[in-house]
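By convention, the token line describes the chain's fold. To illustrate:
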Amino acid sequence: MASAVRDLLRAALVRGAYDGRALPDEAALQRTHAVSRGAVRSALEMLSAEGLVERTRGAGTFVAAYKTVHRAEGLHGLQRTWGPVRHEVVLRRSVGAHSVLVDLLRVPAGSAILRLDRRTTIGSEVVGLWTSYLPLHLAEPLATAGSDLSGDYYDALERLLGCTLGEAELTTEAVVADPVVARSLRIPVGSAVLRLERILRFADGRPLEFAVGRFRGDRLTLSSTSRR
């Protein structure tokens, strides 16, 4: 019963139900979920162990860590964040297209490719890292230092490149943070990380970007709607 209560509370937490206010007290949760006081306490302890809530004697239980939501369908950036989203470019470099990029970006071997290493922050917290590869002749405005990629990343690309985006093919898997990723995300080595692999295409189907991202597993929720 405790795990079921934990799951329902967790679903409410990540949807912002208790942002800025305390969770109901144990007695109220016991009535709402029709479970024992012990089950409620166990559920809250599990959420606390996960780092989602913080329990303070005499004050109550509060949200301790927020998650941002990324909708997996439609081209939208991070949603329902707890602060402004920034995409800070930490590396811009021109590289030559090798076999993998030739296939993914449909460019001749040796073509100039713009590599962008970006750090995604929400407020002051680093939540994700991206390495993107774009054909330089399509992405020259991004090669200029100071190009503004803040806010919704897809909106920024359309604004800076003067293009219309069509679709993104996204693959997600759970991995653990290696020492380099852990240091950049400021998390312990071995922490849960979501690895995203994306191919972004123009409205006419031409590929614009191949990117690999890694996000803190405790800060990102993937959401999608499936239709039959």
Summary: Residues 2-63 form a domain with the Arc Repressor Mutant, subunit A fold (CATH 1.10.10.10). The radius of gyration is 21 Å.
